[in-house]
Design goal:
Elements: E1 2-5, H1 10-13, H2 16-25, E2 32-35, H3 51-67, E3 72-74, H4 78-93, H5 95-105, E4 117-119, H6 121-136, E5 146-149, H7 172-178, E6 183-184, H8 203-219, E7 224-227, H9 230-238, H10 240-247, E8 255-257, H11 258-265, H12 282-288
Parallel strand pairs: 1-2, 1-3, 3-4, 5-6, 5-7, 7-8
């Protein structure tokens, strides 16, 4: 099955491990990723400055995806998923807005119909690949691991913009973890924000959000935190030491993408999954699942 993919800005420029792991695991599930040409930013960074321009950018990317003739579009980034799902929702409610944007798109020989279905990594794997196929590809079951999942905000809220799961009680990511043989632990802070959106304006507050959630996960006895968003990974993984210093907590928690975890269960090498690029203590997790011999120390 062919699926168009839109990477956004952060993944191909900062979070290489996410892209590497997505590219490594999808073919194992029978999903062929089709690259899009001449795409732009999803529009999120300029929403507060010019909402119409932000919508135009989002719709333009959707129109490029529709031009491929494919039915499905994968958006691995939570922020991009929200931006494009919001654009789809607003244009489905406002015919004049859709016509106005399409009039501009004509200059590039593009037209937005609203036909393509958008997916995030989590619901693509849960709903489209499905439990049977996910269990079939597991070669190295992650038995004995206790993992905490972090969904991130933008794939769950607002609930009107096609969330991937129940906004108040999501379960798909938990189930994906357990299909690999691991245990997804419940914890009260599961829906708490990572703090990323405050980083530029209130860095201490942002790092406090990060540190408090990491400490909570660590205190609940999780072997690692599993994420699916590049912004969240940047906070929990890259800024773990800074958030610990801000909150006065001693943090030593492995943080990785779900696709990296899936790749480990598929017995894909850690280098192909980009785990050598993670900043958190990934080696400790690899040792617990008997894969330390293939690890490259960060």
């Amino acid at each position: 099955m062919k699926v168009a993919v839109y990477w956004g800005c952060l993944i191909p420029t900062v979070q290489y491990g996410y892209e590497m792991s997505v590219r490594a695991v999808m073919p194992q599930l029978g999903l062929e990723l089709v690259e899009l040409n001449n795409v732009s930013c999803c529009g999120t960074p300029i929403k507060s400055v010019n909402m119409f321009a932000a919508l135009y950018l989002a719709v333009r990317n959707l129109a490029i995806a529709e031009k491929t003739g494919l039915d499905d579009l994968l958006l691995p980034c939570n922020g991009c998923y929200l931006s494009l799902s919001e654009a789809k929702h607003l244009l489905s409610q406002d015919g004049k807005l859709k016509e106005r944007i399409n009039n501009i798109l004509k200059e590039e020989n593009l037209q937005y119909e609203g036909s393509i279905k958008i997916w995030h990594t989590i619901n693509l794997l849960h709903d489209l690949a499905g439990e049977e196929r996910m269990r079939e590809v597991v070669k190295h079951p992650l038995n004995g691991l206790k993992l905490a999942v972090h969904y991130g905000c933008h794939i769950l809220r607002p609930s009107t913009f096609q969330p991937i799961d129940d906004s108040e009680n999501p379960k798909k990511m938990d189930e994906l973890v357990e299909w690999l043989g691991a245990k997804s632990i419940p914890y009260p802070e599961k829906l708490d924000c990572c703090g990323y959106m405050l980083l530029l304006s209130h860095p201490d507050a942002a790092l406090t959000f990060t540190g408090l959630k990491l400490k909570a996960v660590q205190d609940w006895g999780a072997d690692a935190l599993v994420v699916s968003c590049p912004s969240c990974q940047m906070m929990f993984d890259m800024r773990q030491k800074s958030s610990g210093a801000t909150t006065g907590a001693k943090l030593n928690l492995p943080v990785l993408y779900y696709t990296q975890l899936l790749g480990l269960a598929m017995d894909i090498s850690t280098e192909r999954l980009g785990l050598n690029l993670n900043r958190s203590p990934i080696d400790e997790l690899l040792q617990k699942v008997g894969l330390i011999s293939t690890a490259t120390s960060p």
